[in-house]
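Cross-posting from the chemistry board since nobody answered there.

I work mostly on the small-molecule side, so proteins are not my area. We synthesized magnesium ion and want a rough idea of how it might sit in this target. Sequence and SMILES are below. Is it possible to get a predicted 3D structure of the two together?
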Amino acid sequence: MAERLVVDEAADHAHELAVGLGLHGGGGGGVHGSGAYVEAANSVIVSGRGRARKRAPPPRRGARLMRPRLSGRGLYAITDGPRADLLDAAAAALDGGAALLQYRDKTADGPRRLQEARALARLCADRGVPLIVNDDVALAAAAGAAGVHLGEEDAAIAEARARLGDGAIIGASCYDSLARARQLAAAGADYLAFGAFFPSGTKPGARRAAPALLREARALGLPLVAIGGITPDNGGPLIEAGADYLAVIAAVFGAADVRAAARRFADLFARTQPHSP
Ligand SMILES: Cc1ncc(COP(=O)(O)OP(=O)(O)O)c(N)n1
Ligand SMILES: Cc1ncsc1CCOP(=O)(O)O
Ligand SMILES: [Mg+2]
């Protein structure tokens, strides 16, 4: 236990170092590191710097190092495609209290996507909020994002983990399937996303899921994300059912006042708790 605390202390110190050195694209909010971050944590332990007092034993093969990569709850704001004011809109969502940000841009404009993803990664690092890139593992790596979100048409978790490292946040779409959620949890997903829970103008053809699925998925022990047509007015029951994060596009980035829209979700989380099973 004492050794575990030493590891955690060293990790905190190394996190600051890694962010300061620009080694860590995301960070804060309970996220623990990229590959560089984990290496930095270990070097702190080995060199005896900071408050580290004793060298920790090497982690068991396959064991998760230190704390989970994602903890907490709140709004998971997802960008809504090309827009001239992307950075300002993203900053407003963070000002409003978004706990996670996803860069989702389905265009094939590689140079613009790279430039935007890098700018968002810097913004998020400054705010201590993880940036997740949708679909594109290579873009997440090139931008220095905290992680990637993968659906059924995207790369496998193992491929993303190999490319992004042990500290990356890898989220996975489970749609309406608990069986798929079990598989993805076993494959190393850091959060499980379900939905769509409501009709979505952003993705009209999205498969639908029912809130009871969230209640069942709690047993998997990973953070749960709900997506699809979510607003501050309909999101409460999803939190009560077990959603740690509400992933939202239109009700945040389609709002005239993005900051105020994000704030309404932050307020919803502040006043809503999960129901016990
Ligand atoms: C948090 C979150 N959950 C689900 C999705 C959807 O992913 P996917 O099914 O791959 O669909 P696209 O977003 O790629 O159209 C998501 N992006 N984020
Ligand atoms: C990407 C995605 N996957 C299922 S629904 C959806 C879109 C969510 O956007 P909105 O919050 O605008 O319904
Ligand atoms: Mg996808």
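Reply from a structural biologist on the board:
Welcome over. Reading the output above for you: The longest helix spans residues 2-20. The mean pLDDT is 83. Happy to explain the token format if needed.
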